[in-house]
Amino acid sequence: MGVLGDLFQAVVRLFSGGGAPPARSEVPAKPTRQQRPPVQQPQEQRHHRRKTPDDLSVPSKKPFEKQSLPQTRREGDRLPEQNQINQHNEHYVVLRAEATREGDLMAQCYRQSHEAYQQGQGALAKELSEKGGEHKRRMERLNAEAGAWIFRENNLDSKPGEVDLHGLYVKEAVMYAEGAIDKAQRRGDSEIRLIVGKGLHSDGQVAKIKPALEELMKRRGLPADTDPDNAGLLVVRLR
Predict the structure, then answer these.
(1) If 0-12 CB within 10 Å is exposed, 13-18 middle and 19+ buried, where does residue 153 land?
(2) With 80 as the cut, is the pLDDT of residue 2 above it?
(3) How do 162-164 and 191-195 pair as beta strands?
(4) What is the rounded distance in angstroms from the CA atom of residue 30 to the CA atom of residue 151?
(5) What are the residue ranges of helices labelled H in the chain?
């Protein structure tokens, strides 16, 4: 249609409310920023050296520390820890505890028997006295068993002519000492060494066995002296 056709189409668009589509404004493109390569932070340089045979060797242990060996016991001495072990043995402790209980019951029966007698109850007094006698016999039997056990255990490794009396009551210690002296005299020994202890574990830390044995030696006319190097050892000369 030429020019007239173009003009006609322009008029139609004008009256129809339409207009020529606005030209799209082109936003100028932002200049692209030239990206810089990332700056690498300097890393800690680790120098890896080749391991030598020294590096592969097993770390040396601490120098050997010389342990102190227990001192060799002197003649007549006994390792104190063994004595303590024996005296704290459950069997021994139970025997002594039962004997003590029987002794308490014995004393109670005798006391009640005395009170009953004073009140004119002769039959009851006799019954309580007999019951007290039963407790006494049981006490003596238990103490005898405990004494025999501790004496045997303490003297398992004793030297000839050496007797350990730890853990015994005074009467028991005197009895075992007399038996040991009689045997030594029959063998013809010149002396016997009695380990009596220093009384450190006695009530009030006062020795009880040693004075009793010293009195025994006086009655038997046997010279006895304390070992100059061991206050818990009594040396008895037999001839």
Answers:
(1) buried
(2) no
(3) parallel
(4) 111
(5) 2-15, 80-87, 90-118, 122-154, 170-187, 209-220
Residues in the chain: 239
Rounded distance, CA 109 to CA 45, Å?
A: 95
DSSP state of 54: T
Q: Residue 67, CB half-sphere, CA atoms under 13 Å: how many?
A: 2
The pairing of strands 191-195 and 224-227 is: unpaired
Question: Bigger pLDDT: 159 or 41?
Answer: 159
Rounded distance, CA 229 to CA 239, Å? 22
CB contact set of 225 (below 8 Å; sequence gap of 6+): 234, 235
pLDDT in tens, 118-129: 999 999 999 999
**DSSP element (H, E) containing 163:** strand 162-164
CA quadruple 90, 91, 92, 96: dihedral, nearest 10: 100
DSSP 8-state code for residue 49: P
Question: DSSP label at 166?
Answer: T
Q: Tokens 């040693």 label which residue?
A: 210
Contact criterion met (CB below 8 Å) for 153 and 197: no
